[in-house]
Amino acid sequence: MTVYEKKTLSLLPFQYKKMDDSGVLLVNLCGEFRILTADEFSKLINAKYPEELGELYYPLKGMHIVADGDVDLAVELLSVKLRSKKAYLKSFTSLHMVVATARCNCICDYCQASSSDTTAHGMDMTPEIAEKTVDIIMQSPSPGIKIEFQGGEPTLNWPIIELIVKRAEEINKTLGKDLSFVICSNLMHAEEKWAYFCKEHKISFSTSLDGPKDCHDLHRISRDGKSSYDRFIKNLEFYRSILGPGACCALLTITKDNLNRLPEVIDHYREHGFRKIFLRSLSPYGFAVKNNDAIGYDVGDFIKAYREALDYIISLNLKGIYFAELYTELLLMRILTPFSTGFVDLQSPSGAGISGAVYDFNGEVYPADEGRMLARMGNKRFLMGNVLQDSYDKIFNGEVIRELVRNSCVENLSLCAHCAYQAYCGADPVRYYAESGDIRGRRPASEFCRKNMGVMDYIFEKLLENNEEVIKVFWSWIHQEDIRCDNCESN
Question: I need a labelling partner for 62 at 20 to 30 A (CA). Which of 22, 212, 272, 380 fits?
Fold first, then answer.
C-alpha cells in the first residue's frame, strides 16, 4: 500500500489536448507527454492531495506536472530539462547560407528564389564580397560552422566557391571550429575538377529530385529545353563515383502533380540509392506564389497525402527496408528525446538569424532564406545589414533579429501558448509576414500552423497505437540505423 505525505498538491504548467477516443494528451514545458483518460484528467484538475491521484501521482510528479512540498525544487528540475531543449541558443549561428549567384540554368515554376537567366549581369557574388562574407561568418561564436552554397545555381560561379572554402579553411587554422561545406546544386552540370576539389575539401552536395522523369522535368525546367532529369541522373552517378554513395542528398518539392504519387516518388528515391526523403510542401515565395493556381493545393490535401506516404514508408521499414521521412524524424526527436534539433522552423524563439543566416550575392544579410526570397520579390523587410558596410555585431545584434526573437517565442504567443504541441513546434515570423503581413501571423489559420498540426496529429496517432514494431521504426530513424526483425527483406 502506498503511503502519501499529507501535503497540498500544486499544479505546474502544462498543455493538453483531447485525442478523440484515446484520451487527453498532457505535455509539460519540455515536451514530456502522457495520455490520461477523461476520468484521470478530471482527477488531476480537481485533486488537492497526492492520494487523490492514486497510481498517477508518481508518474505525474516525475514529469513535473504536479508538485508537493518543495515547488521550487520541481521548478528547478523542470528548468534543467527545458535548458536542454533550448541548447541551440548557446551556439548561436551555425548554418551560413551563401548565395554565390542568383543566375540559374533552370527556370523551375516553383522557384522560391526567383532566379535569373544564366546570361544576367550583376547577379554574381564578387571576390570582395566573398572575402567579407567569410570574415563575418567566421566571427560566429558557434563551435560548428556549416557554409552552404546556394543560388540560383551556385556552380555557375564556381571560382567564388573555391575562394570561400579556401579562405574559411585558412581562418579556421587559428579558430579550430568544426567547419563543413555543402553545395546546393541541381546537378545540371558537373566537372571533374569540381568533384576532386569537393573530395579534397570534404564538400557534400544537396540536390533536388521530384520523382520519376515526367515529374521532375514537368516543373524543373531547363532553360535550354533539354531534360533536366537526364543530366541530373548522369551527374549524380558521376559525383557519387568520386565522392562516395553518401555524398549527395536530395530534396523533394511537392506540387499538385506529384502530390498523389508520393509512394511512386519514394520508390524512385530508393531506386537511386537515397535512404531518406523530406515531404516538403510549397512555400509562399517567388515563382511559387505567381504559379500557385497551376501547381498549388490545399493544406488538407497535403496532410492526406502525407499520412498515406508515411504509412507507405513505415511499411517499407517493417519489411526491413530502411527509409526515413526527415520531417517526421525531426519531430520524433523533439517528442521522444530531451534534445534540441537544429531545424530552424521548429525552434522557439525562431532559428532565423540565431541558428542560420543568408548572405546574398550582393552582400546583404538576411535571417533566413525566406527573407532573401522576399527581397527578390521587392520587399527588404528583413534585411539585417551588408557585409561591405556593417560589422558582425551590427548585423547580428541589430533590431531585425531582436524583433524576430521578441515575436517568435511560442510560449508567449497567443493561441500557441496554450497549444498541446507547443514544446515540439516553433514560429516562422518571416513566413507569417509573407502570408499575412504580420510577423506574429494569424495562427492557427496559417498554412504553417495547419500543416504542423496535421502532421503532429498523425504522429501522435501512431505513437498512441503503441505498435511495438512501428515504435522500433521510429527509434531507428532517431538513431539513424536499420532495425533488425524476423522475416525482413534485404535492403
Answer: 22
